[in-house]
Amino acid sequence: MSKLEAQGYRWLPLKEAFDSLPEIDTAEFNELCPGYEGVWCRYLWTTTYFQQFFHDVVVVTHGPLSCTAAVKNFKQTHYSLHSALPFAHSPCTNMDENAVIMGGTDILADTLKRVDREYRPKLIIVTDTCASYMIHDDVDAVIANLGAEVEAKVVYTPSPGFAGVQCGKAVEAMGPLVAALMDPPKDIDQQGVNVLGVYYDTRFTEAEGRKHGGNTEAYAHLIEGLGLKVHRIMNAGGYDYLRTTPEARVNTIHTAMWGYPVARAMEEQFGTPWLKRQLPMGLQGTKDWVMELAIFMGREEEAERFTKAEEEKLLSLFEETKKLVEGKVLLVECSRNSQAKYGEMLAYARLGEELGMQPYVYSLHPMEFKSQIDDLIAVNEVEGMNPPVLIGPYPYHQPVNVEDVMADLGVNEDQCLYIYDDVFPYAKSGSFDPCNVPRYTTSSQMKRVKGSSFLGVGYAGTGATYRGIIESVKAARRKSKPTFYGRVWSSTPFEFQFAQRKERAST
Fold this sequence. Notes:
Elements: H1 3-6, E1 10-13, H2 14-20, H3 27-32, H4 42-51, E2 57-62, H5 65-83, H6 97-102, H7 105-119, E3 123-128, H8 130-134, H9 139-146, E4 153-157, H10 167-172, H11 174-180, E5 189-196, H12 216-224, E6 229-233, H13 239-243, E7 248-253, H14 256-270, H15 283-297, H16 300-325, E8 329-333, H17 342-354, E9 358-362, H18 366-371, H19 373-382, E10 388-391, H20 402-409, E11 416-420, E12 439-441, H21 458-475, H22 484-488
Parallel strand pairs: 2-3, 3-4, 5-6, 5-7, 8-9, 8-11, 11-12
Antiparallel strand pairs: 1-10
Helix pairs in contact: 7-9, 11-14, 12-21, 14-19, 15-16, 16-21, 17-19
């Protein structure tokens, strides 16, 4: 019996694994997954959705300053430092104990007037925190009483942290809120295509002379390759850009978790049709995404010519990559924390299958797995993928050890490729290091390749992924000189390796 099996872990097909889990917030689920759950909250995800991805939109926090500071600390690292997004500032009512006891509607009204006067935004979004929500401050009444004193449009998005710590549930609730900010279409651009659910690199859309940012450029290439037009890429642009989103003919999807809720809400409110394939990665995965759009728009012939030309550019690189990894086990580590959207990792698993690898998915925390139904629909129902998933008593925010996974599967360092989705990969010199085990980072923070999407989508992103895999396999052949990162986390003696000093030639 392996260590993981002894601890209660087991491998199940994706759909069966999902169905085997109890419902969240039940005694059965809490018994399965012990530990705290409050790392992520709805307030964080609400401010994330609106704060840094849209121009001329200001998010006002009605709550204590500490909530704003905690979120800002995370965002300045994750979004600004790693993803080059602007400073995450949210004006705050700074509720103190007096406001919590007596009510904070007066300070909220004053804050909204100051924000409107000093920032001049087109849209103000009011978010609340646990404190203001629990005392039932009437935010809607405050907004109604402002009248002509505020020129901006003001909307309220309830977002107390306790309303949902699961990333999937929090983002799902944003769909109707986003669609509610849109206007009914005046005209439909019959060639216009939206891309919903882009999570990074959309803030700079049509800025600084650039048509699109690094990731969105990949979608522009696919859409324009069919002779169609990019209408809107969400989340991005200003308020006017957002409100005219329904004027496209169809919605396509980047990631299901972020895209499906908005697509459903737009279909219900405006009748906008939407396509369900996500994350065009790999030769076949990209072609499937393009062909779904082409069939809907009546562009099959253009799509066949376009995809054939693009695939020919990557064919030799595909064959070289496949020769190196075919038959290997693909260790798909969803996240070393618990909030990852696993659809992206399973898109890499799909790419791995195209290369002849067998994916095994682990560190997919049951809480996020069960709360992200849209990713399951996109991966299993739409694409037909059903890879094995490691299910068991994951403590919240704790991964399982990849070396234990290898032991459980009975594979050695030469029989696998390790991919991970986080800023904290596992490494330990002497046993598991890039010098002896091939690894490829899918983390957007650590994978910047000039001229391609750092999320790996589209043909350029696929090519970058192939090159990264080739490099990782070749690097693991050296079997010596472990990385500095691996040495830091190892229990083996730390030895520096100095280059040999060349003796000065005698004169």
